[in-house]
Design goal:
The complex is a heterodimer of chains A (112) and B (115). Chain A is an all-beta fold and 112 residues long. Chain A has no helices and 11 strands. The N and C termini of chain B lie far apart (37 Å). The chains are: A mainly beta (112), B mainly beta (115).
Chain lengths: 112, 115
Amino acid sequence: QKEVEQDPGPLSVPEGAIVSLNCTYSNSAFQYFMWYRQYSRKGPELLMYTYSSGNKEDGRFTAQVDKSSKYISLFIRDSQPSDSATYLCAFAGGTSYGKLTFGQGTILTVHP
Amino acid sequence: GAGVSQSPSNKVTEKGKDVELRCDPISGHTALYWYRQSLGQGLEFLIYFQGNSAPDKSGLPSDRFSAERTGGSVSTLTIQRTQQEDSAVYLCASSLGAQPIYEQYFGPGTRLTVT
């Protein structure tokens, strides 16, 4: 079983839609939960970061963590064409310390 | 300020040749990471350096892979006797420290193609 499962998509939505991206994980030692966004031919950039269960909001983005179910989500409200990118969930903690364990990434396209 | 830079941006090499990939981290960042991103495997950790501590090499896929970090700054990832399965994008990241609370800043990557 992979430590992290993420549906690779691709996901295509119209502008203004609400997007839901999800990851499940199996390593109970993971204590830090992140979402990275990666544009084509660029390195990933940190979008959201949290270390507790619950919701964290930043503008149009909401990160949700459910440690009991080992499930994290990223919601994008009022999606824009500029949100078209690959979204990667990432985890850290326990013996892995600072090194990140990533999901496969979900390719998102928001069309006008 | 300047971000993480990597060179070359693209590298095409023949199977069996050695390659060196370079990473210039953000000034003042003590932690430096190498990751590999390929279609089948996603983004996977290779090695990280933190200050003067021994590097964590637990992600290196074989002994053909090695890395060094000189003077606590620039790092070089070396792949000897390259194989076609080494074709991937090699990403470098740096952060203020190795703890997960510090954001990792990624470079644009080196796209390696082994023919």
